[in-house]
UniProtKB/TrEMBL annotation:
This protein's record includes keyword Nuclease: no
UniProt protein name: Crotonobetainyl-CoA:carnitine CoA-transferase CaiB-like acyl-CoA transferase
Entry keywords, A to Z: Transferase
InterPro entries, alphabetized: CoA-transferase_III_domain, CoA-Trfase_fam_III, CoA-Trfase_III_dom3_sf, CoA-Trfase_III_dom_1_sf
Organism: Methylorubrum thiocyanatum
This protein's record includes keyword Transferase: yes
Single annotated GO MF: CoA-transferase activity
Length: 406
């Protein structure tokens, strides 16, 4: 799908993605879902490392790769060769954005660093994602989500409680958040470019993404000088705001202000707790959070999750079920918000993927197609860049470009 066929607020924007695994591809897929044409450039041998993140695979294609790269077109290119670099420069000639998340120094060693490219393409928005950013004492370190979660403070506040082993968040939250921050940075830089014609470098990292997720706990630590610890499902500033076990599962309760606290007591038939000085105001409930949970827990064990959720909704108390991923996928709200959509993959056939989480009234975005096979669009992309068939055949024959068909 070319630029002219795409819909969304970024239709007409061209992005060249030199990214692999997750953070960079998240940035690319968000821009792509919002209408940008994203050309994913992969290495000749094996492509993006996520292609080998299996199981599961569908018809030999990594499910993880297909999730992270849906809606993009792909070219496999030898960037170590002079001709491969020349192809990339042709792609950048009319590009608005370049995304890369290679280890520090890789693009510079290839002769494709920002200081070089800005001279050739002064309007280019160059987005760099890394483990720790382009400056500081850790700039040269490799970065992984687990390491970033540990160093950003996230693992110190995630888990069941004091004395338990450190625990990471289930999803790779620093990878995903870094990709979202990068997309936000690209959009801000693109607005500046539209005003001035000037490109710039956008620089963010997994480390900073993890720190960003500690807003509440950092506020507490900076105000008190004491680092908060893990609290299970509970909230560091409001109570009751956590998960409770029911007769047949778990539900979450968000009675985080005085009005909802009193509504919760009415639903539970526990109005007497309103007169307990330990629970009078949020400050008191936070000081006695363990006693509060112990007082509420027996009530929830008397009925099923569905029963309690119906009562809580009728009583105006924010609450919800604890769903697994398949139950989330089947939830009617997920479907109503188009957060699960179908695409037709060249090998895997009809398959589901996640949708765009931002809705636009005037310029709706969408998932524009499946993930590419390795080099699936190489020939078409080269044609659009001005190469004739003889030149394309020569590049393929010499291993500068790889093409794959279904």
């Amino acid at each position: 799908m070319t630029q002219a066929e795409r819909s969304g607020p970024l239709a007409g924007v061209k992005v060249v993605e030199l990214a692999h695994i997750m953070a960079g591809p998240v940035c690319g897929l968000m821009l792509g879902d919002m209408g940008a044409e994203v050309i994913k450039v992969e290495k000749i041998e094996g492509g993006d490392d996520t292609r080998r993140s299996v199981p599961p695979a569908i018809e030999g294609e990594s499910a993880a790769y297909m999730m992270m790269n849906r809606g993009k077109r792909g070219i496999a290119l030898d960037l170590k060769s002079a001709d491969g670099k020349a192809v990339l420069r042709r792609l950048l000639a009319d590009a608005d954005v370049l995304i890369e998340n290679y280890r520090a120094g890789t693009m510079e060693r290839l002769g494709l660093g920002y200081d070089v490219l800005r001279q050739e393409f002064p309007g280019l928005v160059y987005c760099s994602l890394s483990g720790f950013g382009r400056s500081g004492p850790y700039a040269d370190r490799a970065g992984f989500d687990l390491v970033a979660q540990g160093m950003s403070g996230l693992m110190s506040i995630t888990g069941e409680g004091p004395g338990r082993p450190p625990m990471k968040c289930g999803p790779p939250v620093t990878d995903i958040t870094a990709g979202l921050l990068a997309a936000m940075g690209v959009l801000a830089a693109h607005v500046h470019k539209l005003k001035t014609g000037e490109g710039q470098i956008v620089d963010t990292s997994l480390f900073e993404a993890g720190i960003t997720l500690t807003y509440w706990q950092s506020a507490i630590a900076m105000a008190t000088g004491v680092a908060p610890g893990p609290m299970g499902s509970a909230h560091p500033l409001n109570a009751p705001y956590e998960a409770f076990e029911t007769k047949d599962g778990w539900i979450t309760i968000g009675a985080a202000n005085q009005t909802n606290w009193l509504r919760l007591l009415a639903v539970l038939g526990a109005e007497d707790l309103a007169d307990d000085p330990r629970f009078s105001a949020n400050r008191d409930r936070m000081a006695n959070r363990a006693a509060l949970a112990a007082a509420l827990a027996p009530h929830f064990r008397t009925a099923s999750s569905d029963d309690w959720l119906a009562r809580l909704e009728a009583g105006g108390v924010p609450a919800g079920p604890v769903l697994d991923v398949l139950a989330m996928k089947a939830d009617p709200q997920t479907r109503a918000r188009a957060m699960v959509v179908e695409v037709e993959h060249a090998r895997a056939g009809r398959m589901e993927t996640l949708g765009l989480p931002v809705k636009f009234s005037a310029t709706p975005g969408r998932v524009h197609g499946p993930a590419p096979l390795l080099g699936e669009h190489s020939r078409a992309i080269l044609r659009e860049a001005g190469y004739d068939e003889a030149a394309i055949a020569d590049l393929v024959a010499r291993g500068v470009v790889r093409e794959t068909t279904a």
